[in-house]
Write a structure and sequence with these properties.
The protein has one helix at 272-282, and strands at residues 27-32, 35-40, 47-52, 55-58, 69-72, 76-78, 89-97, 100-102, 111-114, 117-126, 129-138, 141-150, 154-155, 158-166, 172-177, 182-186, 193-197, 199-206, 211-220, 226-233, 237-244, 249-250, 256-266. The chain is mainly beta.
């Protein structure tokens, strides 16, 4: 019997075959102001951890995915950390710090980029849908933008345009729906989804940490219905989903653009709703 040696290739960005490009190390951090954010190869360089003033708010548990994920009938989820059905095809990854281009491929694993104005642009493709994700971190605000450009008409079950898994220490929520009405409540760990309506902003707050976050919709040109879902799912997370386009056909040549801003605040529990309003306006 002939013995054939097997070579395990570990690239800088992925454990993979030689055909996949190394865009960056397995993980790198961006810190600026009171924020520290980690990007991971295993999530195709979407965010995968968010700290505010040294406290973990955006978690990196198994299954705690960020970014943009599609669901297709008969297939299931595809995108970022959802690789159980098909992998997202990452095509390019570029970043700038204070206006200067960064050579991400030269970073060491877990290296920290200190920046007052950071920008990352990742381009990928899922089933013929070209995706451009932009993330900017500046002035303690995270700005996210996604553009979806189908090469052909394609029907989707729905898309999670933005996802943010927050720590289960977030015990309160509030939201302003698109009709201007307010909803608020306390997470009780029942596994249910809260709000389930279109929105202007949504907020999470942790009384133990005395910290919170506000997510505000800036733009949405996606077809069909849009809603947010706040998933009360301990011990994993309290998760924000911006879901749209259920059973819609994305049209060839169209460009669907969505934008979200996430701000952070610190306050006493009795002040949290007023802090939310100030943060939502400030963004």
């Amino acid at each position: 019997m002939k013995i054939v040696p097997v070579l395990l290739l570990t690239t800088l960005g992925f454990i993979c075959g030689a055909e996949e490009k190394a865009f960056a190390p397995q993980s790198f951090y961006v810190s600026g102001g009171d924020l520290k954010v980690r990007f991971d190869a295993r999530k195709f360089y979407t965010m995968n951890r968010i700290e505010y003033k040294g406290k973990l708010l955006g978690v990196d548990n198994t299954g705690s995915h960020y970014g943009t994920v599609f669901s297709f009938s008969g297939v299931g989820f595809i995108g970022t950390g959802h690789i159980e059905n098909e992998k997202e095809n990452l095509k390019s990854l570029d970043a700038w710090s204070n206006g200067k281009k960064i050579a991400l491929e030269n970073l060491k694993n877990n290296e920290e980029i200190k920046s007052t104005d950071f920008k990352l642009v990742r381009k990928s493709e899922i089933k013929g849908i070209e995706i451009s994700n932009t993330i900017e971190i500046k002035d303690n605000v995270i700005y996210e933008e996604v553009e979806l450009s189908p090469k052909e008409d394609i029907k989707i079950a729905f898309v999670y345009n933005f996802m943010h898994p927050w720590t289960t220490e977030m015990d309160r929520f509030a939201a302003e729906t698109s009709d201007g009405k307010r909803e608020e409540g306390i997470f009780v760990g029942d596994g249910k989804f809260r709000v389930n309506k279109d929105f202007n902003w949504a907020a999470f707050y942790s009384a133990p940490l005395k910290m919170g976050t506000v997510l505000r919709r800036i733009e949405n040109s996606s077809p069909g219905k849009s809603i947010i879902m706040l998933w009360d799912k301990p011990p994993s997370y309290r998760k924000f989903y911006f879901k749209s386009s259920p059973n819609e056909t994305l049209k060839k040549g169209a460009v669907y653009k969505l934008c979200l801003k996430t701000g952070f605040f610190e306050c006493q529990p009795e002040e949290w709703l007023s802090a939310v309003e100030k943060t939502a306006v400030k963004e």
